[in-house]
Write a structure and sequence with these properties.
Length: 120
């Protein structure tokens, strides 16, 4: 089935309506949705969601510009995200992670260095 790039799918994923908004596609988590990529029309992108489960990966990148043995990281991810730390050469470094609050983390190291912390 060929679908123009101006579509809205209903909650059941059965009806498609042309809209006046170019390139607008509404996907509803409560219904079956299917979006397909047509090689003949690369501007058309399709996504399929089944049921109400959707997974969205959130990420926060903390840049520690000045070398330090203690990195204080403020984020908006809430909870206790996974922390991956790399130095300026992109080598993974292991540190002691302390979750101070839902939005504040401290990572401590035995030696001072600069780099990035990736929170997911």
């Amino acid at each position: 089935m060929t679908v123009p790039n101006q579509v809205i799918c209903d909650a059941d994923g059965n009806q498609i309506q042309i809209t006046e908004y170019p390139n607008a596609v509404n996907v509803y988590e409560d219904g079956r949705n299917q979006i397909c990529i047509d090689p003949e029309a690369p501007t058309v992108i399709a996504v399929q969601l089944l049921g109400t489960e959707s997974i969205f990966v959130k990420r926060h990148v903390h840049n520690q510009a000045s070398p330090s043995t203690s990195w204080s990281i403020t984020h908006a991810l809430k909870g206790k995200p996974q922390v991956t730390v790399v130095d300026t050469a992109d080598t993974c470094v292991v540190g002691d992670v302390t979750y101070n609050s839902d939005t504040q983390i401290t990572v401590s190291f035995s030696a001072a260095f600069a780099g990035n912390a990736y929170l997911t």
